[in-house]
Design brief:
Arc Repressor Mutant, subunit A; mainly alpha; Rna Polymerase Sigma Factor, Chain: A
Length: 180
Amino acid sequence: MQEKTDNELMGMAAGGDKDAFETLVLRYYGEALHYLRSRMPNKEAAQDIAQDCFADIWAARERYRMDFSFRTYFYAVMKHKLTDYRRRTGRESGGAEMPEIEEIILENSPEAACLRKERKNEMAEWIAALPPQQKRALLLYAAEGMSYQEIAVVMQKNVLQIKSAIHRARTTLRKRRDGR
């Protein structure tokens, strides 16, 4: 099953093949948790939302359209589940907490580590201050590696709007970095 594409697996799942769907779950569960954990502080809620996403996809498997990649479809489902969760819990802010990545710092000196952490925190603040649409588009592009087309589907916008939002976000961040 591992050699099958996502859409092939989803087509098999639409016919009731639980093994094909389980392969998709195993393929995307870690990515789902990473995406959700980067947007909410509660690990257990992130796990619940990820499981709900897969349950909803299984329940709607016969209606799945092969027009888009499974990954795009999956991110759209996660986005809607996360929005629903925030509405239910009163957490509309959607501010993505930046995870600590001190373990990535390659330099051994405490000064270099401190400087990198300062810069990272500063950049996180600048990103958090972006307008919501620009922030979401930029994070989906830069952090999640999604294409403009995939982001357009997830955010229910057209590709030109997505390109414009990402361009504006980058321009704003560059100006902040350069002190303008």
